[in-house]
Design a protein that fits this description.
Largest sheet: 9 strands, mixed
Radius of gyration: 21 Å
Shape: globular
Strand content: 25-35%
Number of helices: 12
Helix content: 25-40%
CATH architecture of the largest domain: 2-Layer Sandwich
CATH topology of the largest domain: Dihydrodipicolinate Reductase, domain 2
Mean pLDDT: 96
Distance between the termini: 64 Å
Number of domains: 2
Structural class: alpha/beta
Number of strands: 19
Strand order of the largest sheet: 16-15-14-13-7-12-11-10-17
Length: 365
């Protein structure tokens, strides 16, 4: 098999991670970087700011798109219509309408499009599904999720779209739920049938931004299993995010960034770490021997429904200054919401959102 020829769209920011991953695959003889599409020229590699022109010039097999959310759909359609497989960073689209436009493009062209939810490449997700299906933890009565991360003001100053709900009339939806913790949403839905029938988002912000930096959401699925997720980028302690599946005879905790599954029953507690498939490798293997992709575009429809609900929700409510502590200076300035760690962790355990817990900055009391 010859190496897959890859064009990278968006070489900076998260694109740097993809450049390193392509270099790793090049050492293994699986892929090679044949072009970069970016507003800023990258030396040493064929470059263009025009994706269509670059595709025609370097003839890639795969176009990997790691650009701002609101640019995804047009770039992906350019690649698909040129007959090139696409690996598209998450979230795939900033609105449900744009998602449907992209899905129509995939259906019309028949060209594979994989979405970069890396956590869904993990065998840990399959293992949790197997535990649920086996009945080991009994009847499932809910799924919770908790994410407590720390970001500084420099995180929001890194790009014009960071922390924005829109740029002019263009939706961006760069909030905690829909971007840094998008994997939590997508992975929690992957543990159900993924069909979303209702959402109740609670959006807040401590930083001077448009989008949420602290949020909770209740998602109702077609199976009737409620999913309650809570996240913050204003935590006191940075923790590994978790998804907890609650059964009437036990629970499963998935540390989705570490591929670790913990099964707890009355008899024992079991831990196991699982392997993860690189999604670019999976896409390349699909080109050589067509089969099921790990994360085809259609499988992310439920996630996009949640993103669209966040987009259509009222703007996040500012958290009053009395409820956060500010430390640091310049780009290292950090806002820590008092008590938010406990509220986030409680949401995953009790399946109650911030307002249901009576958190003061959420209820206005």
């Amino acid at each position: 098999m010859r190496r897959a020829r890859v064009v990278l769209v968006g070489a900076h920011g998260h694109g740097k991670w993809h450049r390193a991953n392509i270099a790793r695959l090049a050492e293994q003889g699986e892929a090679e970087l044949v072009g970069v599409c970016d507003p800023v020229e990258v030396s040493g590699t064929p470059w263009s700011a025009d994706l269509g022109e670059l595709i025609e010039r370097v003839d890639p097999d795969v176009v990997l798109i790691a650009t701002p959310i609101h640019t995804h759909v047009d770039l992906a359609l350019t690649a698909l219509r040129a007959g090139r497989a696409v690996l598209l960073e998450k979230p795939p689209a900033p609105t449900l309408g744009e998602f449907e436009r992209l899905r129509a493009g995939v259906d019309e062209t028949g060209v594979p499009c994989q979405v970069g939810f890396q956590s869904l490449g993990s065998s840990a997700v399959d293992a949790v599904r197997d535990v649920i299906a086996s009945g080991q933890i009994g009847e499932i009565h809910g799924i919770g999720g908790a994410g407590t991360w720390i970001r500084t003001i420099g995180y929001y100053d890194r790009a014009p779209w960071a922390g924005r709900r829109r740029l002019g009339d263009v939706p961006v939806v760069d909030g905690a739920l829909t971007n840094p913790f998008a994997h939590m949403v997508a992975t929690a839905l992957a543990l159900t049938d993924g069909t979303v029938t209702g959402t109740v988002p609670e959006l807040f912000r401590a930083y001077p931004i448009e989008s949420d930096d602290t949020a909770a959401i209740r998602i109702v699925t077609a199976h009737g299993v409620p999913v309650t997720l809570a996240v913050t980028l204003c935590a006191t302690h940075h923790r590994t995010p978790t998804i907890v599946v609650h059964g009437n005879r036990g629970r499963v905790t998935l540390h989705y960034t570490e591929d670790v599954v913990e099964v707890t029953t009355a008899d024992a507690v079991h831990h196991r770490r699982y392997d993860r498939v690189d999604l670019l490798t999976d896409l390349i293997e699909h080109l050589h021997a067509p089969g099921d992709l790990r994360v085809p575009l259609a499988s992310t429809a439920g996630f996009t429904q949640v993103l669209d609900a966040v987009r259509r929700a009222p703007d996040p409510r500012p958290i009053p200054a009395e409820y956060y502590r500010e430390t640091g200076t310049g780009p290292d300035t950090r806002r820590e919401v008092l008590g938010v760690d406990d509220a986030v962790l409680a949401a995953a355990e009790t399946l109650r959102t911030f307002t249901e817990q009576g958190v003061p900055w959420a209820t206005g009391r």
